[in-house]
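Re: Re: ligand-bound prediction request (bumping)

Still looking for help on this. To restate: I need the protein modeled with flavin-adenine dinucleotide bound, output as structure tokens. Inputs repeated here so nobody has to scroll up.
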Amino acid sequence: MSDIDWAARARALAARFAERSERHDREGSFPFENFEELREAGFMRLTVPRAHGGYEAPLSTFVAVQEALGAGDGSTALAFMMHTKLFGQQRDGRSYPDEWYTEFCRGAVEHGWMANTVATEEGLGSPSGGGLPDTVAREADGGWVLDGRKTFTTLAPVLRYFIVLARIDGTAGEPPDLANFVIYRDDPGARVVETWDSLGMRATGSHDFVLEGCRLPAGRLLTRRRIDEPDPKSAAGTAWFALGLAATVIGVAQAAREYAVGFARERTPNSARTISAYPGVRERVARIELLLQRSRAEVADAVRAWEGRATAIAVGMAPLERIAVAKVDTVNSCIEAVELAMRVVGGVSLQKSRPIERYWRDVRAPLHNPPLEDRALEWLARAALGGG
Ligand SMILES: Cc1cc2nc3c(=O)[nH]c(=O)nc-3n(C[C@H](O)[C@H](O)[C@H](O)COP(=O)(O)OP(=O)(O)OC[C@H]3O[C@@H](n4cnc5c(N)ncnc54)[C@H](O)[C@@H]3O)c2cc1C
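Reply:
Sorry for the wait, this slipped through. Here it is.
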């Protein structure tokens, strides 16, 4: 591991991102300049293995970076982790063939190119439910033709590698296979349609990706498995993704905390006292501290459990359950913390000219990223009660 302090480097960038946040949120525009600065500062190779020219940052560094970036701009942090988590997942649970993994690493190290999985569809909902995508790949002329429409394609404005989930229908009554294909934005029949206009995380560029007779050479098939086979990157995928999300929302809630505390120390309505002297304000601030501390402790616990997963845990939950707890509880705690911060600030917290209403919108978006709460709670129930 290099001796670079990645969290400090992320904090320095995040301060600049915070200055641009309001504009990108208002416009729903993509913060290209933030990604250029991340690229220049070496972040595109943060989690790429050393053997491929990267920094091979551990999960603990990854979450520290996510928290720092989230405090500056939630959208940038969320979008950025879609790329970095991919290398962490593949380091811990390899599911991509060597030639493509080497290519993703090379692209990140030599060019700062970004990759993301493009799985969700309007009809399918969250692919973590195990459903079948409508996007279909058919063999033709020694290659593939893909048709379908993906939603929530985060990083669409800057992605080099769109890793697209599709089904391959079976012949003679065989069940379909699930496959991932690598698609470039200039492949014929592929296009980004700018649809992203959301309540929160408005600057993630999570547009639609439309495939109409998109012809690909045979080598673009990245992975293929039977629908009843487990996803080989599943546990590692959950670890990096869920904990990256949790750290991102801690960052957003921390920014709300800073704003509310600064406001409470200054605001003196109708009297000479600042509102920081009022018991209601003090209690709310204390509750914010409690929620943030709990969230950080849960994330740290889950990181330790995942990194030490080879060693049997004597007491308490298995690593994956701890990760589920950290994701679900942290998102809920951070939503509550931002809600409390809004109440500390009072009526003016609703004003668009203040960042705190953006934190309120951004912090809730990861509720809808996997592991979704209902499914995570079912894991915990299954661990305690057995199959339902
Ligand atoms: C900011 C943001 C960025 C995103 N970026 C990406 C991206 O880059 N790539 C990508 O592929 N996707 C992305 N997504 C999509 C995300 O991963 C989900 O697929 C998407 O939000 C749909 O989730 P859903 O809750 O609507 O799913 P649905 O599956 O439609 O679920 C709807 C509701 O039903 C419940 N439900 C569904 N099935 C079950 C079940 N079996 N048991 C119990 N409850 C169930 C869910 O918990 C939820 O409450 C992004 C989402 C957001 C918000």
